[in-house]
Amino acid sequence: RPILSLLHTKKPIPPGPSHIPIITSIQWLRKSFFDLEPILRTLHAKYGPIVTLRMGSRPSIFISDRSLAHHALVKNGTLFSDRPKPLPTDKILNSDQHNINSASYDDTWRTLRRNLTSKIFHHSSVKSFSVTRNWVLQTLLTQLKSHSQSKSDNSIKVIDHFQYALFCLLVFMCFGERVNDQKVKEIDRVERNLILSLNSFNILNFWPSITRVLFRQRWEELLRLRKDQEDVLVPLIKARKHAKEEGKLLTHGDDGSVVVCYVDTLLELELPLEKRKLKEEEIVTLCSEFLNAGSETTSTTLHWIMANLVKCPHVQERVVEDIKRVVGERKDKEVKEEELQRMPYLKAVILEGLRLHPPGHFVLPHSVTEDVVLNGYLVPKNATVNFMVAEMGREPKVWQDPLAFKPERFLSDEGFDITGTKEIKMMPFGAGRRICPGYNLALLHLEYFVANLVWNFEWKLPEGGHVDLSEKQELTWVMKNALQVHISPR
Ligand code: HEM
């Protein structure tokens, strides 16, 4: 039984492979999480559910057991909800912890997180964007149709279309306007460039005073990427500010109410600790977090789910039946958002997708607010703590036939609690106080797009094609070989 006690006299830190100062720290630091995952699996088999790697300047503790995760994140959430102190490169990218995911567990974090959940993820606000979701859906359907018709075998690679659709949606929610195609691509480019190079900047943190000399060009590259991001996002923020001041805000098409977007809420916000409004560069950081956290995670999951629906036509047929039962003989080809609530099988498909293919195989690094003992080991304040999300979703003791795509496992009368409040069986959104604040929005986006994609087209493999479920890590854990499908109107 995990016992968490603060009387931790002389407890050891969790076990792990032997460590040669500096050398092993740098070796681990050079590995991506994709490389680390199989190594950690072996280490957990050898040392148990909680292990330590000496990465960089801090011990990194990894937890694979769902009950220990529950014990730490939910039952002792106040202790385990901090984030590691920022490294020098983080300070540049996160405006010194002025975004939600990197902020310490303090009043700044509470203010930023509450702003997002109460102003943008509130039920009425989410509903106010339904016109936008429909616009993005119609654009996606048109694009898929025209691209598939332009190919001789009608086959199409769908991932770029999914990414673009989700990105447009998040850009609208962020800036409150339909940004033109070229601008959307520009924002996507600067964000992608930054995130894809993050790993290569890790080494700069190891001994900043030395790396500033040794890797001067790498430091300059980091500053250049950040400047590119500001150059693209600041004009959008400024334009919004002016439109607000001049009372020229866009209204929602249906009822004429003014669109309240994420930037509007950030322009109004006051930081309680510092007693001031947000600086422009902090707004850039928060917008960037919003766009990245909300689009790539969802488009990756959508890609995995559609791949499984192509691989398992009987599951796709059951989704169609679920929709038919609710929509009936209505002629238009749109599944409306209000109707999704009455589609239990569709919901089960989404959960099964998140279980088997969580877009993040780990959560973001946590840290403890004070030294604590977990399962007999010391978790020191300077350690980072992380959880094996994908391993938990594929644990054979919890999930029968874990690698099979079987949505039926989620069809119970009592429903499934994705937040893991009572117990954790999987945690694609994390759990406890740092749980993803966007999980309801993400579920809505997934349900809405999967339902409408399946309702509009039959998804099949082209002649001689096959669905390859191998993974690789990019921004998220993506399909190594992108889905190539044949779609035909239903
Ligand atoms: C399928 C879609 C998504 C998945 C699987 C996902 C997953 C996650 C995970 C695993 C975390 C880290 C939790 C932790 O550190 O313990 C997280 C944090 C976060 N997510 Fe998501 N997310 C998704 C969509 C979204 C969306 C749509 C938004 C907003 C537009 C969003 C915003 C955030 C933010 C701001 C955080 C930081 C929370 C904090 O540190 O307090 N996510 N998400």
UniProtKB/TrEMBL annotation:
The keyword Iron applies. Keywords: Heme, Iron, Membrane, Metal-binding, Monooxygenase, Oxidoreductase, Signal, Transmembrane, Transmembrane helix. The keyword Ion transport does not apply. It is found in: Membrane. It is a single-pass membrane protein. It comes from the Eukaryota. Its cofactor is heme. Its main location: membrane. Heme binds at residue 436. GO terms for cellular component: membrane. Gene3D superfamilies: Cytochrome P450 (1.10.630.10). One of its GO terms (molecular function) is oxidoreductase activity, acting on paired donors, with incorporation or reduction of molecular oxygen, NAD(P)H as one donor, and incorporation of one atom of oxygen. Pfam families: p450. Belongs to the cytochrome P450 family. This is Cytochrome P450. It comes from Clitoria ternatea.
